[in-house]
Amino acid sequence: MSEVVPFGDRLAAAFAAYGRLCVGVDPHAGLLDAWGLPDSGEGVREFGLRVVDAAAGHAGIVKPQVSFFERHGAAGYLALERVLAEARDAGLVVIADAKRGDIGSTLAGYADAWLRPGSTLEADALTLNPYQGLATLLPVMEQAAAVGKGVFVLAATSNPEAQALQTAELRRSSRAGETIAAAMISGIDSWNRERPDAAQRTFGDAGVVIGATVDLPQMGVDPDAYGERPTLPVLAPGFGHQGGDTGSIREVFGPLAAGVIVNESRSILATGPDEIGETVRRRAGEVAELGV
Amino acid sequence: MSEVVPFGDRLAAAFAAYGRLCVGVDPHAGLLDAWGLPDSGEGVREFGLRVVDAAAGHAGIVKPQVSFFERHGAAGYLALERVLAEARDAGLVVIADAKRGDIGSTLAGYADAWLRPGSTLEADALTLNPYQGLATLLPVMEQAAAVGKGVFVLAATSNPEAQALQTAELRRSSRAGETIAAAMISGIDSWNRERPDAAQRTFGDAGVVIGATVDLPQMGVDPDAYGERPTLPVLAPGFGHQGGDTGSIREVFGPLAAGVIVNESRSILATGPDEIGETVRRRAGEVAELGV
Lengths: 292, 292
Prior knowledge:
The structure is a homodimer.
Chain A: H1 7-18, E1 21-25, H2 29-34, H3 41-55, E2 61-64, H4 66-70, H5 73-89, E3 93-100, H6 104-115, E4 125-128, H7 134-146, E5 150-156, H8 163-166, H9 180-193, E6 206-210, E7 234-239, H10 249-253, E8 260-264, H11 266-269, H12 276-288
Parallel strand pairs in A: 1-2, 1-8, 2-3, 3-4, 4-5, 5-6, 6-7, 7-8
Helix pairs in contact in A: 3-5, 3-12, 6-7
């Protein structure tokens, strides 16, 4: 059996080699049309493979948006299996953005699909939804880490509708008084810090999702509370098209900037199949030079 | 174009014809083994088709647990497409238990997969996760209702790990002071009541998920707050194997009992492929006689 490379180490290596740009793979109907591809399983396969090809060797991370493959049912999943395999073969770190959440054996089923070595849908990390309790996710986090996989738990998202729920204050919890957004970030950060090898690691194996345009203090989150050099991976969607400005990462995320994965989807994808290679190269370089 | 029958009306018709039993379709590895089926796409297809066959004509509702099909990737989804189609052809009301959640066009992609007439994964209703804000789900609820489909939004779940998040109190919301569980139930109930045809309807088209063994007052939910004859569909997993007692529905849910869908999965499925037909018949009859 080959040695397991921890997910956090793979992330650190991707940052070192290519910087922190993560290219979204979002084949929604409008983009398929703009790319001259059919709105079908075949279309999303072609789209996904071209994005992987453009990213390989220039960016370190890709994030397929599972919804746009699931739209096409089994045919879409067959396409996604191919895209995931090609991306992993190309050495990209692959984050399946599926936002799955459940409990017990049902949640374990999702983990089995996305994080089990040898699964047809195998990715390197999976986004998770904590509505049924952060503690429900812990067994999956343990199992994922044991096989070199990671998770990103939804914490503070940029969409305005999220404010009401994510700023609610815990009452019946050891984190009473914290907002949900803060409790998710603190909970995942603590989990990373309590791992046996935490002291030797640049990044933990579990991260959070925080939107690129979130106002963290408004969400009850103090970005200075996680030390001077946090080890928390932060998947940050919303750069580019959705208004996040890579120049202000340090301002928005404070010390948490250390772990920020800059996800750009539409601003890159909208340049089209002929330009995307050049766009990825340029954006990867620009993001690498930010020096956060 | 044929007339659209609202989801809530289809639910009311299923209750009238067969009672409120909903048979879970949960082909997890342990059950596949017990049934003598392979842990593969073929296995979950055979399992699902046998459960549908056992339910047809005896129960009104089935709930496939998507995780156990997704475990098998595209092959699992191909099996699920077949199971969903057979269940709908048999006249069963089919609730896809996928607990999907996201925003904007990404959430719309999930709705397209599960609730669009003609989709290969077409079901009658879909479970949704509101972590990114209940308001993110409203456009999907509108679109679903327009084509005779329904949704069930996670509100108060039975697993102990859910307490911390679901009892958090809203601060920045018109429902400030309410727990998240209560706000989800009130939000969905209000949406149903504000529909143009609300006064003529037995059930609304949007429901909630409330666990069978939840202590509603402890979750900050007053079950008497929704009128004497609520129109809110309540998908209640956790009867049978997980400890929910159908005899105490009225006690647990108060007036909300009117809309309770009694979901039983393992207690029925564990009786095996030879006994399941008889088990469904017996349980459907017992649940129908509860007279809640």
